[in-house]
From TrEMBL, chain A:
Transmembrane portions of the chain: none
Protein name: Transcription initiation factor TFIID subunit 5
Pfam families: TFIID_NTD2 (PF04494), WD40 (PF00400)
The keyword Transcription regulation is assigned to this record: yes
InterPro entries: TFIID_NTD2, TFIID_NTD2_sf, WD40/YVTN_repeat-like_dom_sf, WD40_PAC1, WD40_repeat_CS, WD40_repeat_dom_sf, WD40_rpt
Cell compartments where the protein resides: Nucleus
Domain TFIID subunit TAF5 NTD2: 22-150
Keywords tagged on the record: Nucleus, Repeat, Transcription, Transcription regulation, WD repeat
Sequence similarity: Belongs to the WD repeat TAF5 family.
Composition bias, Acidic residues: 197-208
From TrEMBL, chain B:
Organism: Daubentonia madagascariensis (Aye-aye)
Function noted in UniProt: The TFIID basal transcription factor complex plays a major role in the initiation of RNA polymerase II (Pol II)-dependent transcription. TFIID recognizes and binds promoters with or without a TATA box via its subunit TBP, a TATA-box-binding protein, and promotes assembly of the pre-initiation complex (PIC). The TFIID complex consists of TBP and TBP-associated factors (TAFs), including TAF1, TAF2, TAF3, TAF4, TAF5, TAF6, TAF7, TAF8, TAF9, TAF10, TAF11, TAF12 and TAF13. The TFIID complex structure can be divided into 3 modules TFIID-A, TFIID-B, and TFIID-C.
Protein name listed in UniProt: Transcription initiation factor TFIID subunit 6
Main location: nucleus
Residue ranges of every copy of the TATA box binding protein associated factor (TAF) histone-like fold domain listed in the record: 12-78
Subcellular location: Nucleus
Length: 613, 678
């Protein structure tokens, strides 16, 4: 039975699926019978079949609870919960508190289990073995569960090893189906528009020929060497409509190119300097940070509902004068743009009031004219950095909005929240353009792909999904994290994705192949922030364990197994090379690292609030 | 995997009695047991649900602690009205009670009088959020500045010292995040090189212990040079700053071997040269090192003890023993040795018993000169009452005779006379408080003479005085925070209160020498990156019960020469010439009239030494260079390279000692010279 249960089903209908029941006292016997069978099977099958334990355990327990066999359910739980893998313990905790039929109504975890089939990937041999056993034993109860509630993705070939399985499992609903990651993803970068660059820069540009990082593109285009060549993996230029460049954007791009020529080339022997911005007296209230691309402004979202914007350059923050004052200005004068700014109220810090709950997300627009913030109050707000006032409040989530981010081309932005969906918005629409639904728990973080055609979301269901902005489809599901995902970042060339979770691990993904390609172990607490250097050589990660760590990204992506078999099955063997890839660990003084940013010259800016113990 | 970490799922439910109590409070008297049970299950489940949601808010709020507001937001998610009135930022003061086999946690809600709240003045407005930038790392190495954690915590230094192999084992890095790569400049560098080298054994990559400990970066060398020069130089203000830096800077462990060598070599040379001032400076360095809470000194104690001991018992420490006040140095060094014993003596190394033996041996020896005799007694006396009781008191009679023979006998040598006089007052000073505790009043002159010989009568009057003093202090101790309960002079530092809501009260009763320094450090940890540290003030306090010790205090704070220069008779209390930064604020007497019959006996002096504003002891000119945080959008990382990049291989041998103190060396102490001007 593989009928997809995509739409949100009626709760009672879902629950009634548990109506069919066997003898409640037999459940333990069924389960231990299967356990015995699996433990006695051959080694190569045992690891694969062990994947059955957890979903069967959960479903059998829920059936017992639903049919009001409380005592049996309790003893069943007591007896077998110790067998489950430790990364399921958060879910087991939820399950353990669920002891009454009445509780099941409205319990999200339970609903997740019903609405989405738990996906297991098992080789054909192992599956045959299981099937034969269950039929021999007439173990209909378990067979029913397997049929009804599980999705067994059977593949031909060698059974996977325990390590291979462990690397991929851990999410709320099992692994991703293989076909879920088969669709084509245009992960290449868009061609940058041609911009005339002052001639004197050309000499320096010649030096940095190799590499295909995003920020270098414009420069190459401008000198005409590769301007006609299109990245074969890039989406068509007009796949999604993008805003046209304004003059100020072009100026900024030229500035960017100039900075690029002064960029430090990083590597294991040339580590970046890290400048740490500590928020003092934040009283544990700092919840979000963002830095503009040119590193001139820092925004902080706080638990007291405020958003604060600092200028970290000597240039103070100025707002436009009041309307009455503006009317006095000579509009013909050359410096009219200067004259409209109010010097009197210029300051290093501007505070934006408007939210009515902690601000969990903040994002500057690429042109630095706007700031987005998302809050517990269920809204995303758009602020003008010209007037320092709120322009729009985007309502739609109704529940806390955990993250928001502007598209790298501006205009679009994405938000994700407790309502388990991510939404795509355009700044001039008060309703979302797309709703990305599919996660089984809160969407914790959202990031745009550098080409703006895709959005990645990390969720508390321990999966990462990649969504197509064009049609709203989910094009990739990455499983393997063992805890809620709290940080995401794309590599500058758009090929890779790095994700960090509460389990302290950073996982690396190849977007084109839909594969996990690396695991970076080292952090001891939630990884809150991730960022690649401008040229993608270094991955910086910041964590609640008060450290910034630098990883060798070049080496991590160097020799990937991308032969046909691996690509087809997704069975990867991760090398245990975290220690080799780790280039540096820098402790802060009890300051969790909330945000990381590489300046255009590859200096790392890190930010966090000092929280005395 | 499941076995590694057994789940601890406690299926806790509220007791059904709670439901009854709640029901009663709502006016429902009779409630069935079954209903209670159902309610309990339901309520427990809902509470767990809310707790889980609240955790979400904690995680998204980037916090490690659950707060009441998290619970409020979780309630809001469920469309439940939040609990108003619970707004604890940090922790909810639950109280615990148990009895009759039951445990109870409850929230103590006191009844508050509304008028009290209205009438209390508003609390201070908390400081506003602000941003402060610092370098967490410069091209891969973490600068040792106060904004960063200490490069190597004491535990690690200890691990390196005691188990050198263990800390180098692979895989150890994971359990100690501090042991990670890139700790220090050199360490990161060393690693880079090691990585390229192929492992010697397949499967068991051998990693050599990094040599980094013996290499100093350029800045460290500069710092070392500056500090050592300031410590033995002529400018007292600079010296105070340098000592403050040694006592508080967290990143000194790499320089420790050099400091240690500097001190021991310095003492060796200057004892021969009889340069009292330099010896005093070096002892103050030892003291500062001891006071630094981030240093693991155990490895260097073997080098420091002989140096300190030399300063206690050396036959001659100054050029003119008859006029120079070398006694203060001996006293100070004796206290240092006592402190060393207290900190480092273990049953394995037996430091204290070995030191005790050394002192006793030289004291018992008949031919020992008076200077060494004084030092030995002082050293023993500082070790505590027990040592005085068992080792000094039994010899009082014998020593008394010896003193009498010098003082009363024909004048053979003025130096001997002075020596004997000092020994006598030293014995009286230390023995009187012990005797006051050991013996019951009344104190009888004859009894004392019978027991202690010629020193008896003097001892008796001192004991009487000590008793009075003790009684007085018992009264006073609660009244004033500035009372010093120790009967001997102490050198204590205490930071003036800083503005800022987080800074705890800093003026505490200085119970021991070490305490105020810890206060200082904890104050810094609480609010380390104050945007603009206020000028730090240090109050040097002294109290003394005997006249001669007043001098010692002054000698410590103004480095002896001042008092030494004007002293012709050691017992006279003199006020030293006021140096630029030392101000004699007042000579407030806390001594009541009853204990002041003998004049200057119990005078307390408060000397306020104010340091320049930069003298936080860590950001000053002598400290590590901390590059200015970038203020523009693109601070050039190359700017940092000059500060941190190049390293010089300093090798294993100590550096050519840029400032190994020599009497005729480059830093002749001018204003700090102990030479008297007769």
């Amino acid at each position: 039975g593989s009928v997809a249960v995509e739409d949100q089903p009626d709760v009672s209908a879902v629950l009634s699926a548990y109506n069919q029941q066997g003898d409640p006292t037999m459940y333990e016997e069924y389960y231990s019978g299967l356990k015995h069978f699996i433990e006695c099977s051959l080694d190569c099958h045992r690891a694969e079949l062990s994947q059955l334990f957890y979903p069967l355990f959960v479903h059998m327990y829920l059936e017992l609870v639903y049919n009001q066999h409380e005592n049996e359910a309790k003893s069943f739980f007591e007896k077998f919960h110790g067998d489950q893998e430790c990364y399921y313990q958060d879910d087991l905790r939820v399950l353990s508190s669920l002891t009454k039929k009445e509780h099941m109504k409205g319990n999200e975890t339970m609903l997740d289990f019903r609405t989405s089939k738990f996906v297991l990937r098992i080789s054909r041999d192992s599956y045959q073995l299981l099937k034969r056993h269950l039929q021999e034993k007439q173990n209909n109860q378990i067979w029913n569960i397997v049929q009804e509630h599980l999705y067994i993705d059977i593949f031909d070939g060698m059974p996977r090893s325990k390590q291979q399985i462990d690397a991929m499992v851990g999410s709320l609903a099992g692994e991703a189906k293989r076909e879920a990651n088969k669709s084509k993803v245009f992960f290449g970068l868009l061609k940058e528009p041609e911009i005339e660059v002052p001639l004197d820069d050309e000499d320096e540009e010649g030096e940095n020929e190799e590499g295909k990082p995003k920020k270098k593109k414009p420069k190459k285009d401008s000198i005409g060497s590769k301007s006609k060549k299109q990245d074969p993996n890039a989406p068509p230029q007009n796949r999604i409509p993008l805003p046209e460049l304004k003059d100020s954007d072009k100026l900024d791009k030229i500035m960017n190119m100039k900075e690029t020529t002064k960029r430090v080339r990083l590597g294991p022997d040339c580590l970046p300097s890290i400048c740490f911005y500590t928020f003092l007296n934040a009283y544990q209230g700092l919840t979000a940070v963002d830095v503009t691309d040119d590193s001139s402004l820092i925004a902080g979202g706080f638990a007291d509902s405020t958003v604060r914007v600092w200028s970290v350059t000597p240039k103070k923050l100025r707002s436009v004068k009041q309307a009455s004052d503006l009317s006095l200005i000579d509009k013909e004068s050359d410096d009219v743009l200067e004259r409209i700014m109010d010097e009197k109220t210029a300051s290093e810090l501007k505070i934006l009031y408007g939210h009515s709950g902690p601000v969990y997300g903040a994002s500057f627009s690429p042109d630095r004219n706007y700031l987005l913030s998302s809050s517990e109050d269920g809204t995303v707000r758009l602020w003008s950095l010209q007037t320092f006032t709120c322009l729009v409040g985007y309502k739609g989530h109704n529940y806390p909005v955990w993250d928001t981010q502007f598209s790298p081309y501006g205009y679009y932005f994405v938000s994700g929240g407790h309502d388990r969906v991510a939404r795509l918005w355009a700044t001039d629409h008060y309703q979302p353009l797309r709703i990305f639904a599919g996660h089984l728990a809160d969407v914790n973080c959202t990031r745009f792909h550098p080409n703006s055609n895709y959005v990645a979301t990390g969720s508390a269901d321990r999966t990462v999904r990649l969504w197509d902005v064009l049609n709203g489809n989910c094009v990739r599901i990455f499983t393997g994290h063992k805890g809620p995902i709290h940080s995401l970042t794309f590599s500058p060339n758009g090929r890779f994705l790095a994700t960090g979770a509460t389990d302290g691990r950073v996982l690396l993904w190849d977007i084109g192949h839909g594969l996990m390609v690396g695991e970076l172990k080292g952090h001891t607490d939630t990884v809150c922030s991730l960022r690649f250097s401008r040229d993608g050589e270094i991955l910086a990660s910041g964590s609640m364990d008060n450290t910034v760590r630098l990883w060798d990204a070049v080496k991590a992506f160097e020799d990937l197994e991308t032969d046909d078999f691996t690509t087809a099955t997704g069975h990867i063997n991760l090398p245990e090379n975290s220690q080799e890839l780790l280039l540096g660990t820098y402790m802060t003084k009890s300051t969790p690292v909330v945000h990381l940013h590489f300046t255009r010259r590859n200096l790392v800016l890190a930010a966090g609030a000092y929280s005395p113990q | 995997m499941a076995e590694e970490k057994k789940l601890k799922l406690s299926n806790t439910v509220l007791p059904s009695e709670s439901m009854k109590v709640v029901a009663e409070s709502m006016g429902i008297a009779q409630i069935q047991e079954e209903t209670c049970q159902l309610l309990t299950d339901e309520v427990s489940y809902r509470i767990k649900e809310i707790a889980q949601d609240a955790l979400k808010f904690m995680h998204m709020g980037k916090r490690q602690k659950l707060t009441t507001s998290d619970i409020d937001y979780a309630l809001k998610l469920k469309n439940v009205e939040p609990l108003y009135g619970f707004h604890a930022q940090e922790f909810i003061p639950f109280r615990f009670a148990s009895g009759g086999g039951r445990e109870l946690y409850f929230y103590e809600e006191k009844e508050v009088d509304l008028s009290d709240i209205i009438n209390t003045p508003l609390p201070r407005v908390p400081l506003d959020v602000c941003l402060k930038a610092h370098w967490l790392s410069i091209e891969g190495c973490q600068p040792a500045i106060p904004e960063n954690p200490p490069p190597a915590p004491k535990e690690q230094q200890k691990a390196e010292a005691t188990e050198p192999l263990k800390s180098a084992k692979p895989g150890q890095e994971e359990d100690g995040p501090l042991k990670g790569k890139g700790q220090g400049a050199t360490q990161a560098d060393g690693k880079g090189k090691e990585k390229k080298a192929p492992p010697l054994l397949e499967g068991a990559p051998l990693r050599l212990k990094p040599r980094s400990i013996h290499e100093l970066s350029v800045e460290q060398q500069l710092y070392y040079k500056e500090i050592t020069e300031a410590c033995v130089g002529s400018c007292e203000a600079k010296r105070a700053e340098a000592l403050q830096s040694i006592a508080t800077d967290p990143g000194l462990y790499q320089m420790l071997p050099r400091f240690s060598t500097f001190i021991s070599e310095g003492v060796r040379v200057n004892v021969v040269q009889n340069n009292l001032a330099l010896l005093i400076y070096l002892m103050r360095m030892v003291k500062a090192l001891m006071d630094n809470p981030t240093l693991y000194l155990e490895k260097y104690v073997h080098e420091l003890i002989p140096a300190v001991m030399t300063c206690i018992v050396s036959r001659q420490l100054c050029l003119r023993p008859d006029v120079d006040n070398h006694w203060a140095l001996r006293d100070f060094a004796a206290r240092l040795v006592a402190q060393i014993c207290k900190h480092f003596s273990t049953t394995t190394n037996n430091i204290q018993s070995r030191i005790t033996k050394t002192f006793t041996k030289s004291w018992v020896d008949e031919k020992t000169p008076w200077t060494t005799r004084y030092g030995s007694i002082a050293g023993l006396a500082e070790l505590g009452h027990d040592v005085i009781k068992t080792l000094i008191l039994p010899r009082l009679q014998q020593e008394g005779e010896r003193i009498r023979s010098v003082l009363d006998g024909p004048v053979l040598s003025n130096i001997d006379r002075i020596g004997a006089d000092h020994v006598q007052s030293l014995l009286l000073k230390h023995c009187a408080p012990v005797l006051a505790k050991l013996r019951l009043p009344p104190d009888n002159q004859d009894a004392y003479r019978a027991e202690f010989g010629s020193l008896g009568p003097l001892l008796c009057s001192h004991v009487v005085k000590a008793r009075a003093q003790a009684a007085l202090q018992a009264q006073q101790v609660n009244r004033t925070t500035l009372t010093i309960t120790q009967p001997r002079p102490t050198l204590t530092l205490s930071q003036a209160p800083q503005p800022g809501p987080r800074t705890p009260g800093l003026l505490k009763v200085p119970g021991s020498i070490a305490l105020p320094v810890q206060t200082l450090v904890s104050a810094r940890a609480a609010a380390p990156p104050q945007p603009s540290p206020p000028p730090t003030k240090f109050i040097v306090m002294s109290s003394s019960s005997s006249a001669s010790s007043t001098q010692q205090v002054l000698s410590l704070s103004t480095s002896a020469p001042g008092s030494g220069s004007t002293t012709t008779s050691p017992v006279t209390t003199t006020v030293p010439s006021v140096q630029p930064i030392v101000k004699l604020v007042s000579t407030a007497t806390t001594a009541p009239p009853s204990t002041a019959p003998s004049g200057p006996g119990s005078v307390q002096k408060y000397i306020v030494v104010s340091l320049p504003p930069t003298g936080e002891g860590k950001g000053g000119p002598t400290s590590h260079p901390s590059p200015a945080p970038p203020t523009s959008s693109s601070p050039s990382p190359l700017g940092g390279s000059a500060l941190c990049g190049g390293k010089q291989e300093a090798g294993d041998s100590p550096p050519p000692a840029p400032g190994t103190p020599k009497a005729n060396g480059s830093q002749p102490p001018s204003s700090g010279s102990p030479q008297p001007a007769p």
